Every structure is written in C-alpha cells, then in structure tokens.
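Entry 12.
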Amino acid sequence: MIFNFIVDIFGATQTTFWIFYFLNLILSIIAYKLGFARKLPLLKSTIVYILLAFGVIIITIFSILEYPMTESLFIISLVLGIYRFRLYRDRKAR
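Predicted 3D structure (tokens):
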C-alpha cells in the first residue's frame, strides 16, 4: 500500500530506497522510544541508534520487496503511542 503510493509519486528509482530507508528509520526510532527505550548514557544511546540505523537497512530491503514492513512499523508506533498516552493519563489521575 505505501510502496505503491511512493512508487506512483516518485517512480521506481534509486530515491525509492532512500525514501523507504528514512521512513522506516523514523518509524523504528519512534517505536523504540515509545516501547523499549530506557535512560542510557550518551555513548550507549549513540551505539543503540547506530545499530538501529544498520538494522533498518534489512527492513528497507523487505519493504522494497513489497513486504508490509513500513505498514507494520506504522501500526506498532500507533499502538505504542496509544498505550503510552493511556498510561500517562492513568498515572496522572492517581
């Protein structure tokens, strides 16, 4: 769905890979921050984000092969965002 949308707009060029890479990277960072991030020292946090950036290359390849990776990351980010909002609202009420 997202693949067809991006290919219709930009065409099947080299930029398609980079568009998916940055889209998947942003969604992966959001999912990491909402669901799994802990307070880490600066160096450890930098290492985590560098490894995340390398791992997103594999996710991007699957996205280019038209697996629903980007859509899954979007849904994961949405669900974790709703969970964090409800958790915040519940803690605020106490």
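Annotation: DSSP finds four helices and no strands in the chain. The mean pLDDT is 92.
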